[in-house]
């Protein structure tokens, strides 16, 4: 970032700090020793709280990051000779450096287009029926991202339609829930309504983007897929010895309700930013703002000028453009500063 200015962070929800609720539980967990490798009371409580929250007796595992969560979950859902159908902008395709293929020992990702970053039943079926010969990696899993990489969400009806297509072709359904909380907030839907009730077999639920330092929860609603999964985590270096420092902050999010209020705030900030940007001449929104990220087209000179002013944002996500991501701690003041700077740099001729 070519700037002497103080950096200002809207590149990702990954740049935010630890929210107070998570920090409180982290400090409480630090008051005493406890058993290692997930045998502690915090991890047991967090897993039980997830089962209460989802109203389902699911299997729960904790890993350090989202790439591990997706890669290991997918490795448990199909075999090495299978394929995973995902959107062409899916994180597992674009930003996990071959992790899903590596941990599944070779399962191939088959990508499908779709408006607003979303898979469609038709796109799925086109890949499933494309070929049936022995040389084609047999589709076995559908992976969708909720909220999507471009800040949109799947409605319940869209999820049910995808589940129906998966049933038609004996496919399992994985959900990359890096921003699952944002989808619940956006749709005013319960976790159950957006997962097992629409046929999701496994959810990777990000805590990192929801106010934790790190820590992702993997929930298996199809518990057969979770057989020996803890061994997969251990072999991948994802079994934390002091697991309580991952699970206790999660418990803070769940027991305080901050998992949802953090997402509601982030979404509200994104809506505020989206409305402000759209009011500026020459700024066009690339996707509907339905969760906590805003994608806009900006001229190259404006992008460079904003970065020189200390703004951090990505231009390589999704279909390009500038992506601004709001988090649990994003403020209106910060967004007003950005809006003023965007206006200023756009007023300057290239
Ligand atoms: C949609 C999506 N899925 C998965 C991940 C993976 O997370 P991590 O960077 O923790 O591996 C990210 C990262 O932010 C993401 O945006
Ligand atoms: C850069 C990377 O895609 C990360 N998952 C993010 O959304 O910020």
UniProtKB/TrEMBL annotation:
Signal peptide: none annotated. The keyword Lyase applies. Residues 10-296 form the Aromatic amino acid beta-eliminating lyase/threonine aldolase domain. It catalyses: L-threonine = acetaldehyde + glycine; L-allo-threonine = acetaldehyde + glycine. Its cofactor is pyridoxal 5'-phosphate. CDD domains: TA_like. The keyword Lyase applies. InterPro entries: ArAA_b-elim_lyase/Thr_aldolase (IPR001597), Low_specificity_L-TA_bact (IPR026273), PyrdxlP-dep_Trfase (IPR015424), PyrdxlP-dep_Trfase_major (IPR015421), PyrdxlP-dep_Trfase_small (IPR015422). Belongs to the threonine aldolase family. This is L-threonine aldolase. It comes from Vreelandella aquamarina. The lineage of its organism: Bacteria, Pseudomonadati, Pseudomonadota, Gammaproteobacteria, Oceanospirillales. The gene is ltaE.
